[in-house]
Amino acid sequence: MTLSQHVIASLSTVQVRYEYLRTIGRNSFLGSHGNGGSVTAYVVETSRGATGWGLPLHDGDPGPLIGRPLAELIDPERGVIDAAAEFLDYPLHDLAAHILELPVYAMLGGAGSPRVRCYSGGIYFDDLDGGLDAIRANLAQDHAFGFRDFKLKIGRGHRWMDARTGLARDIEATRLARELYPDAAILVDGNDGFTVNGLFEYLDGVEDCDLYWIEEPFAERRPDLQTLRERLQGSTRVADGEYEPNVGHVLALADEGLIDVALMDVIGHGLTKWRHTMPVLKAEASPHAWGLPLKTLYAAHLAAGLGNTPIIEGVPGPGSYTLDDGYVVLSDEPGFGLSLP
User: Which cofactors does it use (predicted)?
Assistant: First the structure.
């Protein structure tokens, strides 16, 4: 059956509950991230009874889409093609893939593997309340959940501790993770909380920890990134482009070899835009997925569909994806493979 046989019959919303494995603490800028919550998803149904659902990219008006032929809204080979339907990027991809009886990653081209390497993105500053034993416990919990690689938040001296003490704790936490998990990829994320000099002091303290990447150490300033590139000399990736990115600037920095991994958010940038961005990106991709576990599933389909994404961010929590020995394992069920909540 083709999309041209379907007309949008109804659009409704549903609340999607999510939870983390534990209460997630602070990062260099923000307070506690809580233990879960609820978000609104959209459900799209066609005149022939096909259904798709997913998170919206932003607020939008579904009214003008009722009665529209589905083929005017999304092209399976390109993504959403009508600006009025852009906010329904994920529901429409889910719907189109259901009609075509394909998983989304196959509809995207299947350029990557349906077994997607995934790190835990949930190691925050819980040591501020429970000491390094809290970091140890969080790493163990995420490992038991199925993660084998870990991203650690750093930058405690930006807001929560004095600069020297915070830097020392950042180094201690990183060295602890490496000691406990010698085979893991260790990623670190500063949430723009560092100066160049402060970051270099941190790197001095963890130089034997073999960091996989450094994420958002400071704002995307070309001179600072050039200085960082000279210091790293290719040994550790630089990942950036998450926070309110100027996408053109991020792509230019990637062209210059100053960013190795582009992080535009899986929802904030959107699946259709990622489909357009990936072919011109002169770097690897790893769409930011923090917030809820469903975004990890979306990032996995993007990675398996478009390729060029060697590792994705895992939000530690049950219900949205299957994790096996450090990899999200995607099913061959149509769409994103999830029933309506």
Answer: Mg(2+)
Write down the pLDDT at residue 29. Answer: 86
Helix (H, G, I), strand (E, B) or coil at 50: coil
Whether 98 and 127 share a structural domain: no
Residue 237's domain comprises 115-329
Q: Per the structure, how many domains does the chain have?
A: 2
Parts of the chain with a pLDDT under 50: none
Mean pLDDT over each residue of the chain, to the nearest integer: 97
Q: Which of 103, 111, 6 is nearest to 333 (CA)?
A: 103
Are residues 309 and 115 in contact, defined by beta-carbon separation less than 8 angstroms?
no
Query: Which tens digit of pLDDT belongs to each residue from 256-291?
Result: 999 999 999 999 999 999 999 999 999 999 999 999
Domain assignment present for residue 233? The answer is yes
Q: Is 179 helix (H, G, I), strand (E, B) or coil?
A: helix
78, 102, 126 — which closes off a domain? 102
Please classify residue 332 by burial: count the beta carbons closer than 10 Å to its beta carbon, then call 0-12 exposed, 13-18 middle and 19+ buried: exposed
Q: Which two tokens stand for residue 243?
A: 């926070």
The residue assigned the tokens 């459900």 is 43
Q: Alpha helices of the chain — where are they, by DSSP H?
A: 89-100, 104-107, 127-130, 132-145, 163-180, 196-205, 222-232, 247-255, 271-277, 293-306
Q: Are residues 57 and 148 in the same domain?
A: no
Percentages helix, strand, coil for the chain, rounded to the nearest 5? Answer: 35, 25, 40
* Per-residue pLDDT at 234: 77
Q: How far is the C-alpha of 237 from the C-alpha of 193, rounded, in Å?
A: 18
Confidence at residue 1, expressed as pLDDT on a 0 to 100 scale? 67
Same domain, yes or no: 123 and 269: yes
| pTM greater than the 0.90 cutoff | yes
Same domain, 302 and 194: yes
Identify the sign of the CA torsion 322, 244, 219, 264. Answer: positive
| 29 and 136 both lie in a single domain | no
